[in-house]
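Hi C.,

You asked whether I'd gotten around to modeling the 655-residue construct. I have! Everything is below, sequence then structure, no commentary in between.
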Amino acid sequence: MNIKPFFLGLFFLMATAGFGQANTKEVLFTINNKSYYTDEFARVYKKNLDLVKDESQKDLNQYLELFIGYKLKVNKAYKLGLQDNTKYQSELKSYRNQLAKNYFNDTKITQELIEEAYNRLQKEIRASHILILVEENAAPEDTLKAYQKIEDIAKRAQAGEDFANLAAQYSEDPSAKENKGDLGYFTAFRMVYAFENAAYNTAKDKVSKIIRTRFGYHIVKVDDVRPNRGEVTVAHIMILKAKPEDADQNQPEKTINEIYQKIQQGEKFDELAKQFSEDKSSSPKGGILNKFGSGQLSSEAFEEVAFSLAKPNDISKPFQSEFGWHIVKLIEKHPVRTLSEMKMELENKIGKDDRSKKITASLNEKLRKKYTYKRDSKVYAQLSKWITADFYESKWTQPEAANDFKGILLTINTKPIEGKKFLEFVDKQQKAGIKIKPLTALTETLYNKFLDEQLTAFYDENLETEFSDFANVMEEYRDGLLLFDLMEKEIWERAKTDSVGLQNFYNSTKFNHMWKNRVEATILSSTKMESIKQALALLKKNADPQTIKEKLNVDNVVNIMANSGKFEEGNSALPKGTKFEIGISDIFKEGEYYFVVKVDKVIPEGVKTLDECRGKIVNEYQQYLEQRWVDDLKSEFNVKVNQEVFERVKKQLNP
């Protein structure tokens, strides 16, 4: 168990609730003139109210003491400079980045994309395409040339020419010569988003409009639509197809048929796979492959056989694929899961997919409306002169004059952003391969990307200001991390390593840690009267528990259970009818069980040794040290409570 998240979770929950209906906040107390307000106190009290088990902590007077103690520790942490620890800063930054993601997500668009993807996952589409290659950031003349070419092909396809022949003749997809543009069956997330849209928005036997992806221009013909078959887990035995130089080209087929005959004779599939399969990645696992869906393997023939098997353990006849000969055994079928089961997975996939551009575009649009921003036209004109055609060859460097350039290019609200930052942005963008021409259009495109980046950064910087719930969570997490480090340093490690202090604390509190009456005993139990009688007879002959079990637990049947050790009065393992006196008891019954107890020693009540109660003593010692430490902190820091304000808070929280 990772103690840090657990500790932080106990100390505070993520803040969501406000302070009742009150919108005002007043100074509740100060620590060295630093103010702490009623709204925070009330919010933390209310959200922890149902979590605390100690009723005293629900008392507002007691809770104020705890809250002040908490803030005193945080102040001490800052005084010791723990906030400057690089590990602390890194962990806090990582947490903030994670939390901030929720504020960059357009929930409406995300939900629409989740539902769209899930609906598409219900179907599998078989489609063919024709591709004319053109780079994503190609020059306008190259883009136009590619578009005119696909446009001509599209007209011929729409007029009824055979799509497969057109693909074989004109498509610049390297595989088109062999497959005539046929991509097989696929479902959502298997193709780039624009291509997927075209496939799912085009009727069966129809040709799509021209679409553009990062690969170039496409037209798509939908050949078939069927329900999604889900996924399957199968095992297979594979014999690779013969090499051209092999003397017997039929040997692989002969071998696979011999293996199939062995299966028919009752030999185990997994053992045969380990021994004979030439798929070295799966043979050690008995031939088992990772689960897959339609279009995920490079062999449609293999997929069709795998999905044709009806029940687990069904085994196919030998068949041939592009790679050789196979026998397939069905392990499990995995139907399409429900939307609620897939929601998190779909959201993660959307975040890594071209679909996420919709969410980014929505955020950019909102931020452009949310903030005021202004570009300095003179500064922009100067910067534009420094951007040259070397950019297209990724050879552009900032001119020497830019080193001392201090001009403010952009102002967002009141925040000035130097033109130097834009030049640094342009430098990094060379790797993106943007080919937009002329240079004026390139510069404007780069500026708009820069603007969106700066607006997003400004939004991120001001999350605490704009969202009180975000600010509350970050404040609590910041303090909680510091407090964890402080407690570890000042209390927990000391309680573990201060052997003298721990011993002294034990000596002063040992009478709070007492054993009740105990016995050293052996307990024999059985559900059968005959077995317990036999056990009793053996016990009276001084047979030890292991010997008794060996004699009575035969033929893989457990007739007797034995439990030996020290048992305290009230221990649930000790039968209620046990007498605290040396000797062997008679047989007695509790519930469905018969018992015999042999008591070897009776130990009267007494004080537990330190080792016998170390865990509890260490915990109590930590609490003792913490309370003394808080008292010391109250002397070290000047705490002033506004009692009049506190009385008003109590009335609001406990009307």
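If it helps when you're writing up: Residues 371-463 form one domain.

Thanks,
B.
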